[in-house]
């Protein structure tokens, strides 16, 4: 999985300089936020649904091996073929092999973050196969040669005028206005030809039902249905965590997902297919089950809850950090709060980019409040920060030893562990704080410590501690 080697802080600083980006993002996220809150408030049992969603995902993750084997059996029985891919290289090789085996020079795709994660389009291009994105927003960023900046609305950072210019230039649509209907119609005409010409369709999966081997894709434009029914061959690439045991389980997610993502009671298009059937749809169906770091994430008892994610993007839309810096600052296909906990777990820690992501948050907790499967994102962020710090300390490098924050924390740990040392430190601090403390608070610390008080007040050491009072009163 490709992840930026540059830290989030550096990328975010650059993004903050783009005021147009901030305006586009602020407008879009505020609108989605408001709509989502209204859609969710219509359901009196929303909290119970969230509980159920979280419980189903947790149980499935605990027995993932069994459910995946059951899924493989069901898909095979329904006439499909299952491929297991350990990493991006294997998955890309499998998909390209299938496309080449059918002589395809062009494939149509319906939005799949899993294929973005493995950079399938780049690989296909190297093999001489053009991959056409058919989701409108995906098409926009593909034509612009950019990366997605939102899970659900990949072109959220672009406004209508920018899209019109892009279509004029890339699709030759000269007399185009920036009316959304005109823009959509232009894309539709272009895509219709691609759908009819393509022999191979590639999709992602929102869910896969183990008991029947049924794959489910939810979308809003109908392009997914064209992709999964018109071509002769259909290839679905899905992360192994997308499996759900039964249709009863799916029922819960079909209520949670549309309201959380697009604020709709029900999404316009939901496609289900199980293997192949005679007389309609693709003649061949392949399911690629992608690991790519997921079993590694599964081995972390606290971090593994990130694998519950149903990619609704609600956490992005409420995140004050995402709203200001946009998705590209996270340096991976998974932006926002979920990206900050998922990317470092999938890629592993130990590099500047992934190590910086757990710090890309103010820990306000808004993401946890909206998450339909109750992923405690702040908890995982803090857990991952701990892992980053421990890794650094364990590396034993001179930089780790000289790190002022690390040295201060080591001193504090020693002080807190020794009562006498702690009491001596209190006395010292009490004597030294007099020029800084006013009314029981320290509002500004000097020198490098000023960073701590820049955004918070510090309690002054009291004139008498509880232990001193106790000793005096009770001897
Ligand atoms: S972490 Fe939760 S809120 Fe964020 S995209 Fe995943 S399911 Fe949605």
Top keywords for this entry?
6-stranded parallel sheet, single chain
Could you characterize what this model shows?
It is a single chain. With 475 residues, the protein is of the alpha/beta class. 53% of the residues lie in helices and 11% in strands. The strands form three sheets. Strands 1-10-7-4-2-3 form a six-stranded parallel beta sheet, sandwiched between helices. Strand 11 and strand 12 (441-442) form a beta hairpin. The longest helix is centred in the N-terminal third of the chain and has 23 residues, at 19-41. The termini are far apart. 41% of the residues are buried. The chain binds iron/sulfur cluster (SF4).
Biggest beta sheet attributes? 6 strands, parallel
Number of helices: 24
- The rough form would be described as elongated
Estimated radius of gyration: 26 Å
Question: How many angstroms separate the termini?
Answer: 64 Å
Query: Could you tell me the strand content as a percent range?
Result: 5-15%
Strand order of the largest sheet: 1-10-7-4-2-3
Which segments are poorly predicted (pLDDT under 50) over 5 or more consecutive residues?
A: none
Structural class: alpha/beta
**Attached small molecules:** iron/sulfur cluster
The average pLDDT is: 93
What is the tally of beta strands? 13
Oligomer: single chain
**What is the helix fraction of residues, given as a range?**
40-55%
């Amino acid at each position: 999985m490709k992840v930026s080697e540059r830290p989030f802080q550096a990328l975010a600083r650059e993004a903050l300089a783009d005021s147009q980006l901030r305006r586009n993002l602020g407008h879009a996220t505020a609108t989605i936020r408001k709509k989502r809150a209204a859609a969710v408030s219509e359901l009196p049992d929303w909290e119970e649904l969230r509980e159920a969603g979280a419980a189903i995902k947790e149980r499935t993750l605990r027995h993932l091996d069994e459910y995946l084997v059951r899924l493989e059996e069901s898909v095979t029985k329904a006439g499909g073929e299952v491929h297991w891919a350990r990493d991006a290289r294997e998955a890309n090789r499998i998909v390209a092999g299938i496309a080449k085996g059918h002589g395809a020079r062009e494939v149509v795709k319906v939005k799949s973050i899993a294929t973005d994660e493995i950079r399938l389009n780049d690989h296909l291009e190297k093999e001489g196969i053009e991959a056409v994105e058919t989701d409108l927003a995906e098409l926009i960023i593909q034509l612009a040669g950019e990366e997605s900046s939102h899970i659900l609305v990949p072109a959220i950072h672009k406004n209508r005028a920018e899209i019109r210019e892009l279509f004029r230039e890339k699709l030759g649509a000269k007399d185009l206005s920036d009316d959304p209907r005109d823009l959509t119609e232009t894309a539709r005409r272009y895509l219709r030809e691609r759908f009819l010409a393509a022999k191979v369709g590639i999709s992602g999966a929102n869910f896969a039902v183990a008991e029947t081997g049924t794959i489910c894709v939810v979308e809003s434009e109908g392009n997914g249905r064209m992709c999964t029914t018109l071509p002769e061959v259909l290839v679905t690439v899905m992360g192994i965590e997308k499996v759900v045991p039964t249709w009863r389980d799916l029922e819960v997610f079909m209520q949670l997902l549309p309201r959380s993502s697009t604020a709709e009671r029900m999404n316009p298009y939901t496609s289900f297919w199980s293997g192949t059937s005679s007389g309609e749809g693709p003649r061949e169906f392949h399911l690629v089950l992608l690991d790519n770091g997921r079993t590694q994430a599964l081995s972390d008892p606290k971090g593994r809850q990130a694998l519950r994610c149903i990619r609704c993007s609600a956490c992005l839309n409420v995140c004050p950090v995402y709203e200001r810096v946009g998705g590209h600052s996270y340096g991976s296909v998974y932006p926002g709060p979920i990206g900050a906990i998922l990317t470092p777990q999938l890629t592993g820690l130990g590099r500047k980019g992934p190590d910086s992501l757990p710090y890309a948050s103010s820990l306000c907790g808004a993401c946890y409040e909206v998450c339909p499967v109750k992923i405690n994102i702040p908890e995982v962020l803090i857990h991952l920060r701990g892992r980053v710090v421990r890794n650094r300390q364990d590396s034993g490098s001179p930089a780790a030893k000289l790190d002022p924050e690390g040295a201060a924390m080591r001193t504090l740990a020693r002080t807190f562990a020794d009562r006498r040392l702690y009491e001596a430190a209190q006395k010292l601090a009490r004597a030294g704080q007099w020029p800084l403390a006013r009314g029981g608070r320290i509002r500004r610390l000097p020198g490098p410590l000023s960073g701590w008080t820049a955004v918070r007040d510090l309690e002054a050491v009291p004139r008498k501690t509880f232990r001193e009072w106790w000793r005096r009163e009770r001897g």
